[in-house]
Amino acid sequence: MKHVFLIILSVLALAIQVRAQDNGASLDADAFQAAMMKQEAVVIDLRPWEIYADEHIEGAVDVDWEGGNLMKYLAGTDKDRTILLYCGSGYRSGQAKESLIKEGYTHVYDLKGGIETWEEAEKPVVKQ
Residue by residue, what is the 3-state secondary structure of 50-116? Predict the structure, then answer.
C-alpha cells in the first residue's frame, strides 16, 4: 500500500512539474491561434501603435512594450489568466513574457517568430 501511495505521489509531482514547464512556451501559429480560443485569453500586440494600426491579429490590444505600459495594462488582471503576446519577430514578446513570469503570471505564451510567422502561416490579420 505504501508503494502504491509513493507511485501516485511521484506521478502527481511529475504532472505538476510538466504543467509548470508549459508556462512561458513559445507557440507556433497554429497553437497560438488555438490558445486564442480560450474564453479568458488576453491577446496583446507589443508593437508601437503606428505598426499595430496598419495590421494586427483580430482581437489583439495594442500595448507598446517600449512604452512601458504592459504592467499598467495588466494591473488587476488575474495572474492565472492566459496571456498571449506577440510582436514583429518574437524578440519583444520574449522579453515581455519573461517579465510577466517574474511577476508571477502563470499562463504566459508568445508567438514564436512574431506576426511574421503568423502571416507566413496564412493566418488572418486585420488591415487598415
Answer: HHHHHEECCCCEECCHHHCCHHHHHCCCCCCCCEEEECCCCHHHHHHHHHHHHCCCCCEEEECCHHH
**Looking at residue 38, what is its pLDDT?**
85
Three-class secondary structure of residue 72 per DSSP: helix
Domain architecture of the chain: domains with CATH: 24-127 (3.40.250.10)
30-70 pLDDT, tens per residue?
Answer: 999 999 998 789 999 999 999 999 999 999 999 999 888 99
Query: Which of 8, 20, 5, 11 is CA-nearest to residue 101?
Result: 20
- Which residues participate in catalysis according to the annotation? 87
pLDDT in tens, 71-87: 999 999 999 999 999 99
Is residue 60 a contact partner of residue 19, using CB atoms and an 8 Å limit? no
- pTM of the model as a whole: 0.82
Distance CA 97, CA 3 (A): 40
> Which amino acid would we find at residue 26?
S
